[in-house]
Every structure is written in C-alpha cells, then in structure tokens.
Amino acid sequence: MIFLVGFLVFIGILIYIGVSERREQTKRMESGEDKKKIGEIVRKVVPESDNCTIVYATYTKYENNGYAKGYTMYYWYYAVGFTSERIYCVPLKFVDKDIFYDGYFYVDKSMVTRMKNLLCTDNISCTTELFDNTGDVICHLEVEGKHYSGNISVKQETESAAFRALMIQWAREINGNGIG
C-alpha cells in the first residue's frame, strides 16, 4: 500500500512538472520573449538585418545507429534572416533559458543549383534543402508557424508563411517548378 501511495505521488509530481513547463512555454510564446531574443541576435550579427524577415528554424537529422530499430537524433537551431536573394543562418546554442550564438553563414540564391522543398504544405510551415553545384547540401531548414520546445517558444505565422513563399519562388527559379 505504501508503494502504491508513493507511486501515485511520484506520478502527480511528474504531471505537475509537465503542466508547469507547458504553461511557461505558452507564457513565453504569448509574450514574444523568445522571438525578441532571436530578432536581437540577427540584428547584432547580420549586415542586412534592417531589410530581413526573421524566423526561427531547426534541423533534425535521424541517423541509424546500427541496431534493429534504433536511431540517433541530432538537432541544430538557427536564427534566420532572409531577403529575396539571400538567407542568413545564425547557429544557436541554449543553456537553460539563455541563447548564445557564434557568427553566421549565408546562402545567396546564386549559390543554389538545386533545392528540395520537402514539406511546404500548410501555407505556414516549410522544410527545405538547398544544394550547391557539386550536389552537397548547403543547408537544411525547418520553419514552422509555431514552435514549442524546452528551449524556445515562438509564434511566427506571418514570417513563416513569408519564408515558405520565398522557398517556393526560389524553387520555381532554380528547379523550374515550385516543388523541388
């Protein structure tokens, strides 16, 4: 009986922690706190930041780890500023609720010889891969209208839709179609 009571208390604590964390994420999203931090970072490091639309992007890579059904997931996080001709990517690192960055890289439309728009389906979200003339991936970006994670909570429907439209436009010009 004591074991059962202890187990129920443990489950109750886990539920309380989960609900508290979700409430904190929603509060940060509604206040725009994380979105402001991303914007500040882009404005600090990107030369054309006054002319850029800013979004938060991720990249998740799944790699088979050699076991029957096992895989390893790798995550990358970016603050992205984009114009009609260039995408600036600022790699991010998170420590607790602090966001750190170290430089940036950019991709000019002229550098891209092929692209895949993997999931540009719902008028807001877009997952795209940009390739150079050797066939190597320059970058892979996943941009969503709303993003919740333990690290960041961002509501960016308008900016995400603009990124999606740009990637479809680039695909039309580079691949000859809007799909990729």
Please give a quick description of this structure:
With 180 residues, the protein is an alpha+beta fold. The chain has helices at 2-31, 33-45, 157-175, and strands at residues 53-64, 71-82, 86-95, 98-101, 105-108, 114-119, 126-131, 137-143, 146-148, 153-155. The protein is built from three helices and ten strands.
Can you walk me through this structure?
With 180 residues, the chain is an alpha+beta fold. Helix content is 34%, strand content 37%. It has 3 helices and 10 strands. The strands form 3 sheets. Strands 1, 2, 3, 4 and 5 form a 5-stranded antiparallel beta sheet that branches. A 3-stranded antiparallel beta sheet has the order 6-7-8, covered by helices on one side. The protein is globular and about 70 Å long. The mean pLDDT is 79.
Radius of gyration, rounded? 19 Å
Residue share in helix = 25-40%
Number of strands: 10
Which structural category fits the helices and strands? alpha+beta
Strand content: 35-45%
Mean pLDDT over the full residue set: 79
Silhouette: globular
- Order of H and E elements: HHEEEEEEEEEEH
Number of alpha- plus pi-helical segments: 3
> What does the largest sheet look like?
5 strands, antiparallel
Roughly how many Å apart are the termini? 61 Å
Instruction: Identify low-pLDDT runs.
Output: none
